[in-house]
Specification:
The relative contact order is 0.13. It contains 3 helices and 24 strands. The protein is elongated and about 70 Å long. The longest helix is centred in the C-terminal third of the chain and has 6 residues, at 245-250. It is mainly beta and 345 residues long. The chain has 2 domains: 4-172, no CATH class; 183-327, Sandwich (Chondroitinase Ac, Chain A, domain 3). The two termini are 32 Å apart. A hairpin with a 4-residue loop joins strand 22 and strand 23 (305-312). The protein has helices at residues 91-94, 176-179, 245-250, and strands at residues 4-5, 27-30, 53-56, 62-64, 73-74, 78-86, 98-105, 110-119, 127-135, 146-153, 167-172, 185-187, 194-195, 206-209, 214-219, 223-228, 235-236, 256-260, 266-276, 283-288, 291-294, 298-300, 305-312, 315-319.
Length: 345
């Protein structure tokens, strides 16, 4: 079953030594959020507002990802970044512009990138130029992390300068919709490292991160997650322990406990999750997109928890008896590494 891509966007600019050259011909530029450079070395960047990303709706028009008609994006579909035009240009001039992608994560998810001319409204005047990122419908990668540098240029990729807003880092994350409209809590070493239940009065569900190495995120009352957070984007980490009656009805012989992550956060790297339990004779399962599968978990007496590798969270289930899954679903192929999960150490 194809995984759904949800979108989250950050744009990274690379600093150049050459001065900006202003020409009479038209120019393309990305719309950045501010004129402040971030990062260092060759990866100096500026941020762009993710609300300028478009997808194609059922009518064939491009709409913002926040539009109600946007629906979902699956492998094989395209993402579109609207370009700003400086000075008017002819179609011939526009045709000289190209875009190059240097994918750092998820290269097998992408089929091509190009500059296209598309309709994004109801009238003939509602056309504009976009960078199209066409995803590969034959991609075999189960996770949907996508991270890479896009260079927008007319003559060569090296001409894309930071100060011209033409070199950017594009990132796709699964839980982008869940992060829109929330202020984020910045997670740093030994501070703000706890995530509370969504019902808690101090709950702040969205977190941003410093470029940390190994860090432990504590989900109050339910578990801990050891993960390398280097270059990790913003995530909706809010969770609940709400009872799921619909799932429970399928297993009347079992006593079930649930830990639900409505934002379905997907980390860039694999980490180790410690799911608290009061006894060592339990069975751990996860439910992803409605499919329940058994987790290869090991009891850790020092933590009073079950330990297992995890990268994307949906719903964790603890049962007092082993569940018969044959009657409820056909488990998807297990993507969890069995030995020495990569936590960035």
């Amino acid at each position: 079953m194809k995984k759904i891509l949800a979108l989250a966007l950050a744009f990274v600019m690379t600093m150049g030594l050459a001065s900006v050259a202003f020409a009479a011909d038209g120019e393309f530029r990305f719309e950045v959020r501010d004129d402040v450079n971030h990062g260092s070395g060759k990866d100096v960047y500026r941020l762009m507002d993710g609300n300028t990303v478009y997808v194609e709706n059922a009518d064939g028009d491009l709409v913002l990802t926040t539009d109600p008609s946007a629906g979902t994006v699956e492998e094989g579909d395209s993402l579109y970044i609207k370009l700003n035009v400086v000075n008017e240009m002819t179609a011939k001039e526009a045709g000289r512009w190209k875009v190059k992608a240097d994918w750092r994560v998820g290269a097998d998810l992408v089929d091509s990138v190009s500059v296209v001319y598309k309709r994004f409204g109801a009238t003939a005047a509602d056309y504009s130029y976009f960078v199209e990122i066409k995803t590969n419908e034959k991609a075999t990668t189960k996770m949907n992390d996508l991270l890479g540098i896009l260079s927008l240029y007319e003559t060569s990729p090296s001409s894309a300068k930071a100060e011209d807003n033409r070199k950017v880092l594009f990132a796709v994350e699964e839980n982008n919709y869940a992060t829109y409209g929330y202020a984020s809590v910045h997670l740093v070493n030994d501070k703000n490292g706890s995530v509370y239940n969504l019902n808690h009065e101090e709950s702040e569900p969205v977190y941003s991160f410093s470029n940390l190495d190994e860090e432990v995120i504590t989900f109050e009352g339910v578990g801990e997650y050891e993960i390398n957070l280097y270059q990790q984007g913003k995530l909706y980490l809010g969770f609940s322990t709400e009872f799921d009656a619909e799932v429970s009805e399928k297993f009347p012989e079992a006593e079930l406990e649930f830990v639900k992550f409505p934002g379905k956060p997907a980390f860039n790297k694999w980490g180790v999750f410690y799911l608290y339990a009061d006894e060592d004779n339990k069975f751990v399962y996860e439910m992803k997109d409605g499919v329940i599968s058994k987790v290869d978990a090991t009891w850790d007496a020092s933590m009073d928890a079950y330990r297992f590798a995890a990268k994307r969270f949906d719903t964790f289930i603890i049962s007092d008896v082993e569940l018969d899954l044959s009657a409820v679903n056909t488990p998807a192929e297990d993507e969890t590494p069995k030995d020495n999960p990569a936590t960035g150490r």
